[in-house]
C-alpha cells in the first residue's frame, strides 16, 4: 500500500510485507550494508526499472527487543531526475517488514529531519 502526500503527490510512503527465508532473523539476513544493497537491487532499483540507486548510509537501530536497519539512498530515475529514499526494515513473526519513504530532492532539502523521524519511528510487534 502506498500513501502519497496531500500537497506534494510526488512524496510517498509505503509498507511492504514479505516472507523471510527459513524464519531467519534480521542479522541472519546480513549486515545493514548487505541488506541495504540487496534492497536496492531487488526493490528500489531492480534490473529493467530504469532506476539506479546508490546506498548512502546503512545503520542498525535497536528498539525494545527488535532490531531495525535504516537505509538512505540517492535514486536516479530514467529521466535523469533524482529522488531521495529512506527505508526501515525489521523481521517479526517470520516476515520482513519494509517501510520506504520516497521524496523529491527539493522536499528532501526542506524536510530531511522530519523524514528521518518518520522512518526511525517505524516499529513492528
Structure report:
By secondary structure, the chain is α+β, with helices and mostly antiparallel strands. It is 27% helix and 44% strand. The protein has 3 helices and 6 strands. It has helices at residues 26-29, 32-44, 105-121; strands at 2-4, 12-19, 52-63, 66-76, 82-92, 95-104. A 6-stranded antiparallel sheet has the order 1-2-6-5-4-3. The chain is globular, with a radius of gyration of 14 Å. It starts with a strand and ends with a helix.
Give a brief rundown of this model.
This protein has 125 residues and is an alpha+beta fold.
Descriptive tags:
single chain; about 120 residues; alpha+beta; six-stranded antiparallel β-sheet; 6 strands; about 25% helix; about 45% strand
Major pleated sheet: 6 strands, antiparallel
Number of helices: 3
Q: How much strand content do the residues show?
A: 35-45%
Number of strands: 6
Q: What is the helix fraction of residues, given as a range? A: 25-40%
Order of helices and strands: EEHHEEEEH
Mean of all residue-level pLDDT scores: 94
The rough form would be described as: globular
Straight-line distance between termini: 19 Å
The strand line-up of the biggest sheet is 1-2-6-5-4-3
Runs in which pLDDT lies below 50 for 5 or more consecutive residues are: none
Alpha-carbon Rg, integer: 14 Å
Secondary-structure-derived class? alpha+beta
